[in-house]
Design goal:
Strand order of the largest sheet: 7-8-9-4-10-11
Strand content: 15-25%
CATH class of the largest domain: Alpha Beta
Number of helices: 10
Largest sheet: 6 strands, mixed
Number of strands: 12
Length: 300
């Protein structure tokens, strides 16, 4: 079999999802803060229901991109389309987005249940539906006994669970997370990775597109269906977890950590198992000493 050039594989797209199903499209999005350019002509097309990890060095534009998607910042140029509609025409409060901040941002004067209920009241859910949804999420995050507890009485991990539950309570179409696990210890971070992967199980009828910022390569590979690497405000790579490990980390572009062991998908998980459909490329198939286009199908 002909070895695949590392540079070609790193930019190769496994076309598993029909682009006509794209939920989010960014066209030449740039952002300036006075004389500093945070984003430089970012183009991205994100399929509905996918989970995207944004990684890169500090200052690469990850959080800026997330805030623009959430409507907290406006791009200096370029366009963003959400389900075919120009985002410039959609106020931030009408974008049907859940946002999880790095510092949790819980309302200290509200109980756990009231924090989760907050968005439902804004969206004018009926009292009965609010009560039902809050109970469902309290059970999902395993904090039912803490429904009437205030945030300051919770641990950091518990507060983060409440923050995530509040973000998904009103069933957003887009979930944005800015380094949501950064302040948690290693054991709790591992539990939350699985928790985030299992979000669709809480409501199989609700398809949510998730974009999260992380500095943790293993976290990105375990959770995301695709990884976007930003460098100086530009998209350097958009790859699958396997491509990221074999072609980006192994090529020395970023320091490599251990590749996570495969986590079997639970039988109750309603999502298509994209990881099983992705091709895992063995290291001996990638030749870092050659460059050029990908070999054509059927080449020997």
């Amino acid at each position: 079999m002909t070895p695949i050039p590392a540079n070609a594989v790193a930019n190769f797209r496994y076309d598993l999802i029909n682009t006509s199903d794209s939920f989010l499209v960014l066209e030449e999005v740039s952002k300036y803060f006075r004389n500093f350019q945070a984003l430089d002509r970012v183009d991205l097309e994100i399929p509905k229901g996918s989970t995207i990890a944004l990684i890169g060095a500090s200052g690469s534009g990850k959080s800026t991109l997330l805030r623009i998607l959430g409507g907290f910042e406006q791009p200096s140029s370029g366009r963003i389309w959400i389900e075919g509609e120009n985002a410039a025409d959609i106020p931030s409060q009408a974008r049907n987005i859940g946002f999880v901040f790095q510092d949790y941002a819980l309302f200290s004067h509200l109980t756990v249940a009231e924090n989760i209920r907050f968005g439902l009241e804004i969206k004018n859910w009926s009292v009965a539906d609010q009560t039902r949804r809050v109970a469902q999420l309290l059970e999902f995050i395993k904090l039912t006994p803490y429904a009437n507890t205030y945030p300051k009485q919770l641990s950091g991990g518990q507060q983060q669970r409440v923050s995530l539950a509040r973000a998904i309570a009103a069933k957003p179409a887009l979930l944005l997370l800015d380094e949501p696990f950064g302040a948690l210890d290693r054991k709790i971070r591992s539990e939350f990775r699985e928790w985030l992967r299992d979000l669709p199980i809480a409501d199989p009828t609700h398809e949510v597109t998730t974009i999260f910022v992380t500095h943790d390569h293993q976290e990105a590979m375990e959770i995301a269906s695709e990884i976007v690497v930003l460098e100086q405000g530009r998209v350097k790579y958009r790859v699958t977890p396997e491509e990221f490990y074999y072609c980006v980390l192994q090529a020395g572009e970023l320091p490599a950590g251990p590749i996570p062991s495969a986590t079997p998908q639970k039988s109750s998980d309603p999502r298509p198992d994209l990881r099983r459909k992705r091709v895992i490329l063995p290291p001996d198939l990638i030749d870092t000493n050659i460059t050029g286009p990908l070999p054509q199908a059927g080449s020997a």
